[in-house]
Design goal:
The complex is a heterodimer of chains A (210) and B (92). By secondary structure, chain A is mainly alpha-helical. Chain A has 2 domains: 32 residues, no CATH class; 144 residues, Nitrile Hydratase, Chain A, CATH 3.90.330. Helices cover 43% and strands 10% of the residues of chain A. Chain A is built from 11 helices and 4 strands. In chain A, strands 1-4 form a two-stranded parallel sheet. In chain A, strands 2-3 form a two-stranded parallel sheet. The two termini of chain B are 15 Å apart. Classes of the chains: A mainly alpha (210), B mainly beta (92).
């Protein structure tokens, strides 16, 4: 990059910048220069993304656990169910909720890129975007789930769902035993990001209060 | 061509230059239509700045693991993927 004869100002390419980061920055600068996007669009999208978190998806799951009629609506049309509780389901026209039961366990992957229900779960974890997860969970799901600490009985049907197109998938984990008396807000704290991807169960939250 | 839920289908076994959303591990495999989602613009043309029209029907297709990864352990496990109509074929 010694030759640099165009005339707009920008930060120099740093030697320690990761190649993907440098490429993204170069693309952004080119798109801004061409007038395809402006910097405010980019900032606005990033703000939107980081404002989302798994707490949003957890609200849907907890509501489904306490309200069977809501769960049915969530399973029929998760986008409409999210709107019903005041959540922004994101730009995908179709969001599908998959219910884990004692007989069926869903786990979601995007083998072709990193499709993820960002509006309801926030930014995806790095491992979800990594080649090892994307390639191995489809060929050896039980092995990969085991590495996450989740061992399923042989008679449980594992369903790997590869989100290859426009649909975004959200797993409804099983409600943990012993939570019968808990309120919806307390239940939501049990619903983790990983349990809504399907690589773990919903579980007791870690607490560092004492 | 449209398909109904429960119907057996084969994923076309063809190569495709350029962007497409059919993963190679299911090409040529026989599965079952699990859901008929809706129609969406075609990513194969949209990826190159075109409008993606006409829209294509998108299906969730389920496969038995044994048919896709023969050395898989876990006999009843299934793998699902979303496949556009023009990548599906009727089985005999």
């Amino acid at each position: 990059m010694r030759h640099h004869d165009h005339d707009h100002p920008h930060e120099p390419v740093a030697a320690d910048e990761p190649p993907a980061g440098a490429r993204a920055r170069a693309l952004e600068e080119l798109l801004v220069e061409k007038g395809a996007i402006d910097r405010d669009d980019v900032r606005h999208r990033i703000d939107w993304l980081v404002s989302r978190s798994p707490a949003d998806g957890a609200r849907l799951v907890a509501r489904a656990w306490v309200d069977p009629a809501f769960k049915e609506r969530l399973l029929v049309d998760a986008r409409a169910a999210a709107l019903e509780v005041g959540l922004d389901p994101g730009p995908s026209p179709l969001v599908v909720a998959l219910e884990n039961t004692d007989a069926v366990h869903h786990v979601v992957v995007c083998t072709l890129c990193s499709c993820y229900p960002k509006a309801l779960l926030g930014p995806p974890p790095d491992w979800y975007k990594s080649l090892p997860y994307r390639s191995r969970v489809v060929s050896d799901p039980r092995g990969v789930l085991g590495e996450f600490g989740l061992t399923l009985d042989e008679d449980v049907e594992v369903r790997v769902v590869d989100s290859t197109a426009d649909v975004r998938y959200l797993v409804i984990p099983r409600r943990p035993g012993g939570t019968e008396g808990m309120r919806e807000e307390e239940l939501a704290a049990l619903v983790t990001r990983d349990s809504m991807i399907g690589v773990s169960r919903a579980g007791p939250p870690l607490m560092f209060k004492s | 061509m449209s398909y109904r839920v429960g119907q057996q289908v084969r994923v076309a076994e063809r190569s495709h230059d350029g962007h497409h959303r059919t993963p190679s591990y299911i090409k040529g495999k026989i599965g079952r239509v699990e859901r008929a989602h809706a129609s969406f613009t075609n990513p194969e043309t949209r990826a190159y700045g075109r409008d993606g029209l006409p829209e294509k029907e998108l299906y969730l297709v389920g496969f038995a693991y044994d048919d896709v990864w023969p050395d898989h352990r876990g006999g009843r496990d299934r793998i699902y993927a979303d496949v556009f109509e023009h990548w599906l074929e009727e089985t005999a």
